[in-house]
């Protein structure tokens, strides 16, 4: 019988979003001086320790780093209620590296969710380790790499654990009668490419493998999503929702000639069944994510092959506009509205749908959407875990800002740095580099979209999410 202990984690009150933005735009703005925010601790960020000054320990960005435009490196905060238990299955024996596993469960896994208190990738994942030892190895690999901010030359232990995960996964794919566990391993292998410093490799092979398992799971038990109960306790529903988000982030990266359609009957039915599911990565937005999967595919076809379809573009535009506004959570509502406008901007930039508008009107509308996204995201506190999934709409909005939007550009770059401080994924910093190149082009009067420039000019497959 498992023994449980519970401890409270320290909590620190964050400043308001308006104070954060003000400190970015104007260094003369006074920062909070409350001594409770500046108490001595061993948990200060790397930059403050290096400078030998007190750190207020705000996560993901302390106020000193925020004001000085520095990359803040600090440890993720533990949940308010932190569970400690004898959780390592005895059958796993010596392959368990307890510090790495515990680091993943308590800290690193937070990068995958918008609410640390609802995290199936943390302690709930332990129940699957016996069935899928490959899952344990990839978790330990990611834990080791996350501790070091996913360096280009990963820690040896991380590379070794990833190799063991791949070896065991091949065996489990043949022997396992529970493909859900294999899906978890494959999705985390995909995450290892998410954290890859090579912008040309987004882990397409793992995405395709996950699609194969997804199709198999849906064909095996199509009615499972309709069963009563909390969808968050349903591993299949969580796996499918995770695949949907992963596909959305990669839809514009896959070669259009190799891309598989997503508008199949089983997938469409699953999306409808999960429309109200509170998925741990993005909340109740499966339908919105599904539409954006289609938008990404369409944009890739236009950019790579020149195939434009006004009927499809118009249908996607209507679906985005029709997605209902969420009313029970203001931060999620702002985020979903930003994702909708992100999709609309991509359609205007990459389809003949926008040809019905005069060029000046089209540009003004795109700019209006970009400003709205920037304002929406700025209303979400930097301390919110919603930061984990802001990169794509943030990149789309920032790339459309004009030369006179200097302060907004600066604020959105600061938000990208905060995302990096929270999830430590190197592609976030590469996105800043991409933005700076696009701004340089646009400031000369030329038109440039981040997606077209990245695919055709940079030859990158930058995975953001």
UniProtKB/TrEMBL annotation:
The keyword Membrane does not apply. Keywords: DNA-binding, Nucleus, Transcription, Transcription regulation. One of its GO terms (biological process) is positive regulation of transcription by RNA polymerase II. The keyword Translocase does not apply. SUPFAM superfamilies: Zn2/Cys6 DNA-binding domain. SMART domains: GAL4. Transmembrane segments: none annotated. Its main location: nucleus. It is found in: Nucleus. GO terms for cellular component: nucleus. Gene3D superfamilies: Zn(2)-C6 fungal-type DNA-binding domain. It comes from the Eukaryota. Residues 44-72 form the Zn(2)-C6 fungal-type domain. Pfam families: Fungal_trans_2, Zn_clus. One of its GO terms (molecular function) is DNA-binding transcription factor activity, RNA polymerase II-specific. This is Zn(2)-C6 fungal-type domain-containing protein.
């Amino acid at each position: 019988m498992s023994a449980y202990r519970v401890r409270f984690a320290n909590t620190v009150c964050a400043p308001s979003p308006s104070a954060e933005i003000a400190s970015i735009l104007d260094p003369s703005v006074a920062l909070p001086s409350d001594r409770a925010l500046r108490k001595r601790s061993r948990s200060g960020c790397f930059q403050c320790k290096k400078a030998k000054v007190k750190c207020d320990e705000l996560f993901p960005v302390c106020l000193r780093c925020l004001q000085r435009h520095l990359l803040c490196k600090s440890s993720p905060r533990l949940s308010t209620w932190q569970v400690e238990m004898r959780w390592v299955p005895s059958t796993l024996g010596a392959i368990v590296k307890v510090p790495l596993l515990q680091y993943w469960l308590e800290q690193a896994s937070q990068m995958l969710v918008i609410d640390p208190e609802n995290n199936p990738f943390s302690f709930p994942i332990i129940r699957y380790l016996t069935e899928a030892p490959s899952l344990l190895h990839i978790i330990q690999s990611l834990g080791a790499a996350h501790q070091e901010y996913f360096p280009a030359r990963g820690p040896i232990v991380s590379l070794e654990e990833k190799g063991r995960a791949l070896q065991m996964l091949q065996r489990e794919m043949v022997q396992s009668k529970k493909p859900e566990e294999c899906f978890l391993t494959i999705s985390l292998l995909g995450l290892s490419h998410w954290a890859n410093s090579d912008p040309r490799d987004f882990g397409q092979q793992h995405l395709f493998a996950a699609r194969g398992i997804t199709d198999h799971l849906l064909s095996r038990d199509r009615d499972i999503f309709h069963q009563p109960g909390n969808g968050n306790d349903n591993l299949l529903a969580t796996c499918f929702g995770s695949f949907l988000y992963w596909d959305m982030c990669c839809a514009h990266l896959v070669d259009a000639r190799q891309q598989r359609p997503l508008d199949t009957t089983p997938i469409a039915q699953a999306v409808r069944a999960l429309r109200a599911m509170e998925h741990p990565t993005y909340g109740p937005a499966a339908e919105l994510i599904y539409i954006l999967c289609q938008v990404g595919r369409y944009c890739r076809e236009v950019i790579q092959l020149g195939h434009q379809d006004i009927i499809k573009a118009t249908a996607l535009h209507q679906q985005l506009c029709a997605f209902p506004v969420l009313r029970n959570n203001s931060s999620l509502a702002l985020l979903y509205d930003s994702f909708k406008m992100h999709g609309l901007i991509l359609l205007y930039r990459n389809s003949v749908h926008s040809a019905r508008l005069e060029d000046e009107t089209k540009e003004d509308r795109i700019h209006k959407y970009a400003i709205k996204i920037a304002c929406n995201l700025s209303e979400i506190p930097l301390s919110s875990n919603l930061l984990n999934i802001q990169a794509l709409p943030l990149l789309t909005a920032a790339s459309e800002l004009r030369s006179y939007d200097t302060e907004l550009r600066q604020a959105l770059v600061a938000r990208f740095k905060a995302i990096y401080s929270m999830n430590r994924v190197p592609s976030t910093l590469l996105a800043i580099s991409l933005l700076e190149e696009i701004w340089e082009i646009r400031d000369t009067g030329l038109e440039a979209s981040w997606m077209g420039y990245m695919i055709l000019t940079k030859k990158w497959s930058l995975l953001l999410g």
